[in-house]
Amino acid sequence: MCPFCGLDIERPQELETKRLGEMPVGSCACGAVYAYDVTGHNLGPAFSEALVFACDMDWDLAWGLLPEEDYLEKLVENYDLESHLIVPEGNLDGRRVAGALYFIRPHFDIQEVTAEGVQKRIKRASPVDTASRSPVKWHTGKRKYTRVELNEIVDQFQVEKAQEIAEEDKRIIRDLQRLLYSDDELLRLKSVDILGKVSAVIVRKDPAPVTKLLQGLFSSFEFTASSSWGAVDAIGAIIANIPDIFAGYIPTLYQFLGEKTLRASALRAIVNIAGTRPEYVQKTAQYFVPYLKDSDPYVRGYTVWLLGLLGAAGVKNDLEAVKDDHTKIKLYDAGRTFEKSIGQLADEALERI
Question: Scanning 47, 131, 322, 328, which has the fewest C-beta atoms within 10 Å of its C-beta?
Answer without folding.
Answer: 131
